[in-house]
Amino acid sequence: MIISPLDIRKMAFRKKSFGGYDPDQVSSFLAQVADQTETLLRQKDELATTLKATEDKLESFKKIEATMNQALLTAQKATDEARLNAQKEAELIIKDAQVRANAYEDESRTRVHNLEAELASLKNHRDSFLSRFRAMLKTQLELLQTISGDLKDAGELNEEDATHSSQSSSPGNVDLDPNDSGEIIV
């Protein structure tokens, strides 16, 4: 059973005929005990109220902490996802660049191959032309040598004819064509 300050104040003691306590001193002491008990009970109520408020605040702080932890986890996940997405995007950009570089390289190789083939074709045409041109020059040179030889022969004939003509002037003399084609005209 809990004794309240009011119970202490209302407590009545029996008086003994011989050697009892001084009633004023007992009353004064009981008043002090009642006051202190009352103060202690008030402090207890205040502490209980403060404790309740502190527990409420603690609960509130725990909720805030849980919310902050959740926000932190969400932010961490978002950061991880952003990093992963950035990494994937970087890989895609690199892949795309490699594909384009390979395409440019293939196109360049094709162009080089085509240019080399065209160059080889042009060299073949040049060589063919030079070969035909040499053959034509050779033929023309041979023709010039033949004409030159014919002219020489014709010059010797002319000298002989001139000698024969001066000796006898008969019809049917041989004249050289003034264009000097090397043919003898009779």
Describe this structure in words.
The chain has a two-stranded antiparallel sheet. The chain is rod-shaped. The model is unreliable at 169-186 (pLDDT under 50). It has helices at residues 5-10, 23-167; strands at residues 175-176, 184-185. The chain has 186 residues and is mainly alpha-helical. The protein has two helices and two strands. β1 and β2 (184-185) form a beta hairpin. The chain starts with a helix and ends with a strand.
Feature tags:
single chain, 186 residues, mainly alpha, two-stranded antiparallel sheet, 2 helices, rod-shaped, disordered C terminus
How is the topology of this model organized?
Layout: H1 5-10, H2 23-167, E1 175-176, E2 184-185
What low-confidence regions span 5 or more consecutive residues with pLDDT below 50?
169-186
| Secondary structure: number of strands | 2
- Roughly how many Å apart are the termini? 176 Å
Rg over CA atoms? 69 Å
- Mean pLDDT across residues: 83
Strand content: under 5%
Number of alpha- plus pi-helical segments? 2
Helix-strand sequence: HHEE
Helix content: over 70%
The strands making up the biggest β-sheet line up spatially as 1-2
Shape: rod-shaped
Q: Could you state the oligomeric state of the chains shown?
A: single chain
Helix/strand-derived class?
mainly alpha
> Tell me about the biggest sheet?
2 strands, antiparallel
